[in-house]
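Researcher: Structure for this, please.
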Amino acid sequence: MCTVTAICPPPSCGGAARPLMRLTCNRDEQRSREASIGPAFRSLKDRRAVMPIDPPSNGTWIGANDAGIVACLLNGNPARGPGARRGWPERLSRGRIVPDLLAADSLEAAFEVACEIDADDFPSFRALVLADGRHFVAYSDGRSIHVTEPVPLGGPLMLTSSGLGDALVDPPRRALFRLMLLNSPDVLRSVASFHAHRWPDRPHVSVLMSRPDARTVSRTIVDLHADAIELVHRRLDDGLHPADGNECFRLGFNRTEVAA
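Model: Predicted structure, token format:
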């Protein structure tokens, strides 16, 4: 359960600190799920990556590597018809997928990794992978997988999911995204406002969501610059505000030398 956006801010937005690309992820999870850890550095084959860690899987849903690749994963929650699958027995954790993608040296190599994923191994998901202003998306319904060809990011992109059903939350969140980003003079500010948006009368479908059994638990922002990546991970409290204490982590590295 997540809402993910990706933008390439124009030169007029953000001044000298403007990233070439920004990915933002609101992570929605069960209230009973253990909080994320990190971010932390991990060695993945020949690559160095940074990612928050999901304790139950020891994997992650978002991260970036020192080849300039950013990857993010959303659970898939298709509409459930009569006789539809209600569980995913004996499937592997989706927390493995992003680290496998971040072991790649290029977007093309990550594309090949995605094409080799066995859909039978994992519950349904969508994975967004970006680098150098381009992206692709891998879609799996738990039976087969489809991977789009890498293309330029172009305009703002939004993906979203919910345990209530993706078809329930996608239309209102997508309409809001278009409204807030269309012709915006400051897309960085507008996308931040989008990820903080709540409908008082519809908290369960809001981008910053809350319902009795689940809520938005964290927000992660990944900025890709010409020679560096910065990942900022903030956990949120039950009031959907940044949690007390040292909850804001900034870890960056360029493509040849790691630094925190």
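Researcher: Any notable elements?
Model: Confidence is low (pLDDT under 50) at residues 256-260. The two ends are 29 Å apart (CA to CA).
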